[in-house]
Amino acid sequence: MSGRPRDPISPEERAQPVEVVPYDPSWAATFEMLRQRIAPALGDLAVGIEHVGATAVPGLDAKPIVDMDVVVRDAGDFVAVGQRLTDLGYFYLGDLGIVGREAFRAPAGSPRHHLYVCAAGSAALQAHLTLRDALRADPSLAAAYGALKRELAVKFRDDRDSYTEGKTAFITAVLLDVREGRRRSLRR
Predict the structure, then answer these.
(1) Which residue, 59, 116, 150, 170, is most buried by CB atoms nearer than 10 A?
(2) 106 in a domain, yes or no?
(3) What CA–CA distance (Å, rounded) separates 103 from 94?
(4) Total domain count for the chain?
(5) Is residue 35 helix, strand or coil?
């Protein structure tokens, strides 16, 4: 790891232990509430707002933090979208080392969530959607990913970056298998 955080959480949240909890059906409602707050402010700058990450997969254990991707037509819209999100109380953090994905810290007092802005067709957006859809389509794959997340949460309870890095091989394998039309092996 480069030592640079790759998620948009506050320093206070970063100091908290990694916690993976059983799936909570309220995560979908939390996403929808956040989407309804954000969409009117962005207007036609946003061509979509996607619920991504583990909280978007029914039945999957996850950190209780909703991940959202605001989809824009192209990277040229990042500045205008960023200004509107800033007006809503979001704090711009840059790409956090992932090209094509701009990150924002959620406003104080809002439900825990990560918000990213991605251009339509970007590699970052495609990775989020591909992983989400693969996990939704294959309960055994989702179960294997959930087991890995629980294992990593115990092993790296106080090291959020190592927890995230520990998922990389699994995620990469899923993305490659989908791209190449193979069914994911459950080996880690």
Answers:
(1) 116
(2) yes
(3) 6
(4) 1
(5) helix
Residue 185 lies in a domain: no
Helix or strand holding residue 91 (H, E): strand 91-94
Split at pLDDT 50, 70, 90, the class of 8 is low
Which range marks the domain in which residue 26 is found? 11-179
- pLDDT at position 106 over 50: yes
Per residue in 42-89, pLDDT (tens digit) is 999 999 999 999 999 999 999 999 999 999 999 999 999 999 999 999
- The answer as to whether 2 is a domain residue is no
Residue whose structure tokens are 């994911």: 184
In a domain, 1, yes or no: no
Q: Which is nearest to 41 in space by CA: 129, 121, 117?
A: 117
Instruction: Give the sheet arrangement for strand 113-119, strand by strand.
Output: 46-52, 66-72, 113-119, 101-105, 91-94
What's phi and psi for 184, nearest 5 deg? -65, 130
Model confidence pLDDT, tens digit, residues 155-182: 999 999 899 999 999 999 999 999 988 7
Confidence of residue 1 (pLDDT cuts 50, 70, 90): very low
Task: Note the helical H segments in 54-167.
Answer: 78-87, 123-137, 139-155, 160-166
* Residues pairing with 102 in the sheet: 117
Which pair of tokens denotes residue 135?
């996990």
**In CATH, what number is assigned to the domain containing residue 18?**
3.30.460.10
Q: Scan for tokens 């950190």, then name that residue.
A: 63
